[in-house]
């Protein structure tokens, strides 16, 4: 192919040219953003994968894959894990992937992270259910759900986040291309966010319904308490976490018919500052006991009254993105929230909150969950390891009768 | 609807709340980007619309509309123009649109521009062909074209550009919603770009094939010479320009099979720096006469040899964006270039170049034009005017027999 093309290109002539390796011609690696001076590289190696506790980047693409039937084996999965680990270790650091065909697209990673997870169906397909974390389950059905199969499930997920869409596009291409003979893309979801306060990139964002989103979130030692698995159920999973993906469509046409006051009562916060209706600043604690004339100031069926943790154990990490896709014919918007929640155990953390929301949230009339998926986000790796290695090595030992 | 919802929300209770106007609660307008100190607002009023000579923003969405049959009248078009002018005049300046239902999404415009144009079919549909600029024509068919109707045509176009996707999403929603009873969305195309050198945002970008793109471009007085209409054919069009939209799919799977040297011979530039094969820096003039061993260093059928202007008159403004959309089932990429060219007269400027490319560009094997459209970008407006007013007032005068 290349030779044919070259001949076609040269027409009557012929040309001798050196064959410099791709890596040799790549320019200097950009390790900091000249505009802000901030480091533009996130670490790859460590006890946890990036893209969870990482300060949220502005762009996210989630890719779900299914293994092709002939590759639904431990060997097939290991091949993919080795490829993705090698790709992610380089691309996140601003280095081209091995045999990268567009190496220049790798040089400005803009805090790229690559986060790999396994769906419950993967453990079934590979007959590894004994190694499946007990916390990795499909979510129960909620009465508000209108789930479309095209936005759910998947053997594998890769979450790619960066502060620019270019490195995300490049990484999507590299990771997909390198495993295309072994896996097919099941779905792709893309989102964007910008922090409300530029100086607080980890703070809340504004969703496309106009609400301040992500005010209540985890920090510091709460990650160990609420996010990272401790390996109590499955040794290999220590340092991992469970990702819940919910695609929540905003019913913008009816939402926009509401008056501003009504919207604020539905949410329980003001639209301007995001302050609870009982407060003045976004960070003010809502006072659910406040009444005026015998009527609660924050309606008990408002979104914050129900979405907030009622028990300490119901806390989890929210890392949402907006989505805004081309609408179907005859409609003018297809937008909403790509709600990404990370926690040790969704059954104890996410599900009770979602059940409360499903049962009574005033906001339900204007939002519709259309996609849902759960994944076990793998623990991080040390240099020389590959993602999932602890699991796959354990499987090998078990298969060989060497359980010690 | 609002009352029903409010009652539902409050359940047994009732609540009295003030009805503050939406605009009153919006926070301070952000007029500069805190990260860079650069102004984040582009002017709206002036002899030309923004989004043409404007330093290219990072995100673009192009929306094509068709007037609904019952609104294919001068009065229908005037209504839309008045609405869009009012919306654009506010949104570009960081102010919510009138009756904006998500006013907070308007406060960080990130250099938002709104650029409105008319397609040839609009002049037909409204029987205004006598007022149609002679330079506004459908492009001739090129042998390389594989045009899909879903990416072509349109009575009206709106190009929305900003340095963040959030204000673009909001503006798309506002402009579409406000005219939905009069016009339907025909197509939506979205793109992104980032400058190769952060310190030179008007400079070239890198496309998803890995090439440096946009090296040769116009500046300064060349805009008057090559871009802005002078009203010689149609008085009302002075200050406007013609936009050519070409959706050019990259055939990434076969492109990636080429060796790096072959790719560089196809393009005529190095992939690393974008320098011509006869030079060292991107800005070096290519030397098409240079030979080594009797063979031209830059192949005569390379992309730069053909895409470059051969006559002075063939120059035009390139303002391209990358696109990267979810691929069809079974494929792994649907990416390419949203090629946007602005010029006074495509027949004299763009078409000869495109004809040369179509006839012999080595790159044709790896790129496929799948969409094509032409629009007359309206002249800019002064405060108090609306977009298209000079045309529509002239039509009124002609209809009333007052041609003076």
From TrEMBL, chains A, B:
The keyword Metal-binding applies. Pfam families: Dyp_perox_C (PF20628), Dyp_perox_N (PF04261). One of its GO terms (cellular component) is cytosol. Its cofactor is heme b. InterPro entries: Dimeric_a/b-barrel (IPR011008), Dyp_perox_C (IPR048328), Dyp_perox_N (IPR048327), Dyp_peroxidase (IPR006314), TAT_signal (IPR006311). One of its GO terms (molecular function) is heme binding. The keyword Cell membrane does not apply. Belongs to the DyP-type peroxidase family. This is Dyp-type peroxidase family protein. It comes from Mycolicibacterium chitae (Mycobacterium chitae). The lineage of its organism: Bacteria, Bacillati, Actinomycetota, Actinomycetes, Mycobacteriales.
